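Reading a protein record of the kind used here takes only a little practice. An example makes this concrete, so a full record is given next.
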Amino acid sequence: MLKLEQVETTYGHIRALKGISIEVNKGEIVTLIGANGAGKTTTLSTIIGIIRPKSGKIFFNGKDITRTPSAKIVASGIALSPEGRRVFPKLTVMENLEMGAYSLRDQSTFSENLEKMFGLFPVLKERQKQMAGTLSGGEQQMLSIARAMMANPTLLLLDEPSLGLAPMLVKSIFATIDEINKKGVTVLLVEQNAKAALSLAHRGYVLETGNVILEGTGKELLDNELVKKAYLELL
């Protein structure tokens, strides 16, 4: 479904991605783990077209989207829930969801998606007229995911969905990601909580200073001594 081939992304003279190759198959949850500065967020930003790669190719459903504008990438079926949630604080919950659906052309699809999101996140239905900036951190994360899902994606990019959340909320968010995946949405998950991410994911990649240094199934990476020492012992 998604394929990155030798993608290099730079910020000025800094090589943030040094020729990475990853693949996400339809129906999978794939996770990228690594320390701060490893290139995880840059990878998602490059896929969605926020940053242009210096070299390499990105394919989605067999089509080269390397130079495609972000709006067209979203319309093709990829959506991003960004790091730090980044809801529109001075808009209501409903207005945020409407912003997520800007690429939809059909009102009936919007209504269907809205009901699905209210089913997935009942608290958002209760708070639909509330300003997004007044929501709790967990509620804002739910809104960020729901806003991305309003675009009807077949591939959902999630950047640090558990960041700053209490353990019980983290468990709830990961259960929701699993539910979204079981409903047919493929997920590429960037996450610092390596144990939670690898326990959920079908496969994973370990990034270090812009390089993929390990890949395998979630279980293989959980059992890997290097991963245990670098990412799991502190949890």
